[in-house]
């Protein structure tokens, strides 16, 4: 099947109404959660890469959106910002991320879900700090909290602190040895989070007028049988789209995700899940929308 690619075709032609001939990235993070760039710097980077449409989708917060929009206006940057969020949910012992796109960021039901999620983040962070203390690492919570500042505190902050203090040699090792979940119980300092359900996340996104997208379906380490179960439940809960395109996905994985979209009548989204500049991926890079997919922006 033919693929249209931003790398192969500098002026990506997406065959759809709405955002034809645009460079589009619908998943990115700022320092309002665990991204490395401030909302302003992220917008500048997107503008440099000639991205036309960018969604900011920070973990359980919309704090970066007004800052980014103000910067776009102040600097007169030709970029359409899509208001977004990435909500962590709990499903069968897995943490499933639901992205909300084109949301009303001030919607009351969404705001109250965000508050609930922030409390869950805070509690989890405190418990993680306690467990890490038992592993011999003191004050990690305080340092992670300081690093997160006013933003959403995440395990990425803990991983960074553990790395900076020399307790692990890479951030990945912090997940593998301490705060990640492999197996049923997780590593020594893993804390089961108290996230909302998939249904609650989808409902709040819909109340806020947005589209609900299952983020990175390939990253949950689910068998084919369990992934199908997840997609069935997401679809029955009125979820709108699957993220079928991430930079790291193989053509086979993209095809598989596209087939799920077609089977369950779901739309398709694409995004880099950009956190900070690195060798392997960047804003808008290597994003390809398979021909035959119904792009999520057709809903807007
Ligand atoms: P949290 O939302 O608090 O669970 O933090 C998870 C975040 O940590 C993710 O959004 C990723 O950005 C980052 N992360 C980096 N490596 C890993 C990993 N191996 N497992 C889970 N999260 C990771
Ligand atoms: Mn993240
Ligand atoms: Mn995610
Ligand atoms: Mn993300």
Automatic annotation (TrEMBL):
GO MF annotation, one: 5'-3' DNA exonuclease activity
InterPro entries named among the record's database cross-references: PHP_dom (IPR004013), PHP_domain (IPR052018), Pol/His_phosphatase_N (IPR003141), Pol/histidinol_Pase-like (IPR016195)
SMART domains noted in UniProt: POLIIIAc (SM00481)
Pfam families, per database record: PHP
Domain (Polymerase/histidinol phosphatase N-terminal) ranges: 24-91
CDD domains: PHP_HisPPase_AMP
Domain of life, per lineage: Bacteria
NCBIfam families, A to Z: RNaseRnm (NF047791)
Full protein name: PHP domain protein
